[in-house]
Design brief:
- About 55% of the residues lie in helices and about 10% in strands.
- The protein is of the alpha+beta class.
- It has 4 domains: about 35-90 and about 560-670, no CATH class; about 95-250 and about 795-828, no CATH class; about 280-310 and about 335-540, no CATH class; about 670-790, no CATH class.
- The strands form 6 sheets. A 5-stranded antiparallel β-sheet has the order 11-12-18-14-15, with no helix packed on it. Strands 8-13-17-16 form a 4-stranded antiparallel β-sheet, with no helix packed on it. Strands 5-6-7 form a 3-stranded mixed β-sheet.
- A hairpin with a 2-residue loop joins strand 11 (about 720-730) and strand 12 (about 730-740).
Length: about 850
């Protein structure tokens, strides 16, 4: 009898778990079906992935060789912390959980986790598994997920995948079980923070903030503040715990942010306000157009991505007929407000239809906070197109000015729109509303959304002129180009408009038949799932398809050394390279083989970024101009001798063609050198403006703030005085010096005081900043060993806090999971 009861229990457990097992299995199949090239051993070719591979090469090589973290790399921008490139934090014990979740590898794992995360969100809302499955499909296939992956924004994609379960856990904590909800939220937030895309975490917080405000108001109306405070306090503790687990990365990143382009500049600029964070023009450069928001319903409402027209388009045909085939790339299908785009934010026509249905039938408490979050998301995504609202957030909302590309705000709507859509289906399935009321709401929703899409099909001119500002200025003699552009873009809009209208009609019919009991729910849900795939799979395929993949061997060829690279690699000294064959400060490939003057990163060291703008770019432009016109080597050398910043950064080699020998810069100053005098300047402005007119070989520019450290402002060189780099590691530089008298040495290394310590004969000494970005030091007479070690205390402290927090979180989760089992065993 006892065995029979156990078998019945096991059968019941299996039956209840079966829908979830099937859902996970289908998510896996769909993820690999979409990204089937990975099963053939191919790799996704994405620009930012290539940038990462180049930027992280030195870090990964050091890690492989020593088993330790360098925490610093000289591979780009003359040197910078590795915190936002590639660092492992051994104190984080939750890392194995993330590794298991990402076992499929990018990009399949990102899509799978997007499905799974939204599925968990809807289960926490106590929806039926089929409803949760539909919502997960819709969220996973939103176009922005694929646009991120196609660009190599993998950290953003993973952070987006965790948005939904974080929101679901918070709602569950307030509506059901505060402890379990807080524990789940802490776990998912931990995983999102590990993805290391703070901008997405910030926007997740904004969703929760909106929900929290509405929940507080609701409890205040019911005179039941305690019901709000308990889950709020537990959730706060969960946030502290998640931050604690990730404290290593958060602390080091926070410390670095003060020195990065997200921090405060030392330069005083008359045209900008004195602030930390990014300037407004940079923040709002990628602002979604107000009318461009229609892409949520009609993907090609503004022409799709910034790509040339297809070969059979009227534009290409017209250019060919007028002998202007070379100009094809100048005309692109996108004509929206942004400088360019990889594709629109499309959440699905069927999803928008269900969302509008949710506006009508979902209870007020569930929908109003979602609507508010969507409004915030959309309005703030407009950026410079609604600047008075954007200004309020930049000026007064903490942390908002740290992030660029306000169009990313639409990730909030990307979560909330399918959430309300799924809740609408839940209301229908749970029979909470009379049939006639649902049918009326169904008709109204279909008419609003389908009718709007059909209206743009009939009258596409409602979308505007179909021309960008620059295209409107094309001379009248080229009106035939405008005519072709308008025709192509109108057709793109009309095709997608009628497509959306038909999909909405099909979805409405399926739901109508189910509500009328003409078809069984399982058939209806299968039909809706198929319609979602028919709708969103092809749109996602426009921006990430099998053509984005490459055979692994071919992919790796892009990192093979060129003739120029091979010539440079023969030189075993430590030096830097200026690559003029790429966009120097938007390229990561040079860093794969060399220490680059340039590179690509969204958060460079502030002073180096300013050096680029004020000095390096003018020097590089002057050099390029001279290369184009120089009549002799002497003529070219004259320009190089005046390139103060390139020389003090030890730019020994300049790549002018991948297939020819590099240009050798004989004026590069090496790894370290003694100067004759120190020139004190009043401030950062005076320092950076003097860089083009001083003699870096014999002079050092030093800010007055370091005056107390300058023991010797003038000295004369003596025959035999030497200083050279004896041994190089990313985080440990060893020099040998020999002088007859005390001297001041300048090092071609980037000044970063938060972790770099200097030693002379193993005795810690002070060093100071010189020449705006470099390090300098007083060197006593005699023979000495000079070392710089990068040992940031933030990393050590961070790992200790991470370890303690990890243990607490894991014990909490194990305790919650074990409690029902312990109770059953006691009762059993």
């Amino acid at each position: 009898m006892h065995q029979k009861r156990n078998r019945m229990k096991m059968n019941n457990i299996f039956k209840s778990a079966l829908p979830h097992i099937l859902a996970v299995l289908v998510f896996t199949i769909i993820s690999f079906a979409y990204f089937h090239p990975v099963l053939e051993g191919k790799k996704l070719v994405a620009n930012d992935t290539k940038v990462f591979n180049g930027s992280a090469k030195e870090i990964q090589d050091y890690r492989k060789e020593t088993g330790k973290e360098p925490l610093w790399t000289n591979s780009m921008f003359g040197g910078m912390p590795a915190y936002l490139i590639s660092v492992k934090y051994p104190g984080n014990l939750v890392k194995p959980v993330e590794s298991v979740l990402k076992a499929f590898g990018t990009p399949a794992a990102a899509l799978f986790l997007a499905f799974l995360g939204f599925y968990v969100l809807l289960l926490l809302y106590k929806t039926k598994p089929w409803v949760a499955f539909l919502g997960a499909l819709a969220y996973g296939f939103s176009s922005y997920m694929f646009i991120c992956l196609s660009a190599g924004h993998n950290t953003k994609a993973y952070a987006m995948a965790y948005m939904a379960p974080i929101v679901g856990s918070v709602v569950y904590a307030f509506r059901n079980d505060a402890l379990k909800g807080a524990a789940l939220m802490s776990l998912f937030l931990t995983l999102q923070l590990m993805a290391n895309h703070i901008q997405i975490t910030y926007y997740t917080f904004l969703i929760i903030l909106v929900f929290g405000i509405f929940e507080l108001v609701s409890q205040l109306r019911d005179h039941n503040v305690k019901a709000f405070l308990k889950p709020a306090l537990m959730l706060f503790a969960g946030v502290v715990l998640a931050v604690g687990v990730n404290f290593g990365s958060i602390y080091t990143t926070w410390e670095y942010s003060k020195f990065s382009t997200r921090g405060k500049s030392d330069l005083k600029k008359a045209d900008t306000r004195d602030q930390e964070g990014l300037n407004k023009a940079y923040i709002t450069q990628w602002s979604y157009g107000i009318d461009e928001t229609m892409t949520l319903l009609i993907p090609d409402f503004r022409g799709g991505a910034s790509v040339p027209f297809s070969k059979d388009s009227q534009t290409v045909t017209a250019l060919r007929q007028n002998n202007m085939s070379d100009n094809v790339a100048q005309f692109q299908s996108y004509w929206g407000d942004q400088p360019g785009t990889s594709g629109p934010v499309y959440v699905g026509a069927l999803v928008i239809f269900l969302f509008v249905l949710g506006l009508i039938i979902v209870p007020s408490r569930e929908k109003w906070w979602i609507i508010a979050a969507i409004i915030m998301s959309v309005v703030l995504s407009w950026g410079k197109n609604l600047m008075f609202i954007t200004n309020l957030f930049i000026d007064y909302f903490p942390g908002y000015d740290k992030f660029r590309a306000v169009s990313v705000m639409l990730v909030m709507a990307g979560v909330c729109i399918p959430l309300l859509a799924a809740l609408a289906v839940k209301e229908i399935v749970d029979n909470n509303i009379p049939r006639e009321k649902i049918l009326k709401a169904l008709k109204l929703s279909a008419l609003i959304t389908g009718g709007l899409a059909f209206l743009f099909f009939i009258i596409p001119g409602l979308a505007g002129s179909f021309l960008t500002g620059d295209e409107k200025g094309i001379p009248s003699t080229y009106d035939w180009v405008k005519t072709a552009l308008v025709a192509d873009r109108k057709m793109m809009l009309r095709v997608d408009a009628i497509r959306s209208a038909l999909l909405i009609a099909a979805g409405a019919i399926v739901l109508w038949f189910m509500i009328k009991s003409k078809i069984k729910p399982v058939v209806a849900f299968s039909g809706l799932a198929l319609l979602i795939l028919i709708d969103m799979w092809p749109v996602a395929n426009r921006y990430l398809s099998s053509s984005n993949f490459q055979v692994t061997k071919d992919y790796e060829k892009s990192f093979l050394p060129t003739r120029a690279d091979k010539a440079i690699l023969e030189d075993k000294s430590e030096h830097r390279v200026l690559n003029l064959t790429v966009s120097t400060f938007n390229d990561g490939t040079t860093s794969y083989l060399h220490h680059s003057i340039g590179g690509y990163h969204g958060a460079k060291i502030m002073r180096y970024d300013e050096l680029i703008s004020y000095n390096l770019m003018p020097e590089i432009k002057s050099l390029i101009s001279k290369l184009q016109k120089a009549s002799s080597v002497e003529d070219l050398n004259s320009t190089l001798s005046k390139s103060n910043c390139l020389n003090m950064l030890n730019a020994k080699y300049i790549i002018i063609s991948p297939n020819s020998a590099p240009l050798v810069n004989e004026f590069a100053l090496g790894n370290a050198w003694f100067i004759k005098n120190v020139k004190m300047v009043d401030n950062a402005n005076a320092e950076i403006s003097s860089l083009s007119s001083f003699d870096p070989k014999n002079e050092a520019l030093v800010d007055h703030r370091f005056d107390s450290q300058i023991k010797l402002k003038e000295s004369s060189s003596s025959v035999g005085d030497t200083i050279y780099l004896q041994d190089y590691k990313p985080n440990l530089l060893t020099y040998k010096s020999s002088t007859k008298e005390d001297r001041v040495a300048v090092f071609s290394e980037i000044y970063y005081p938060a972790g770099w310590d200097a030693f002379i004969d193993n005795r810690k000494v002070d060093y100071f900043r010189a020449d705006y970005v470099l390090r300098a030091m007083n060197i006593p007479a005699g023979d000495h060993t000079v070392t710089f070690r990068f040992e940031p205390s933030s990393y050590k402290v961070g790992n200790k806090v991470s370890l303690a927090s990890s243990v607490i979180l894991l014990l909490l989760l194990l305790g919650i999971a074990a409690t029902p089992i312990i109770k059953k065993s006691k009762n059993g």
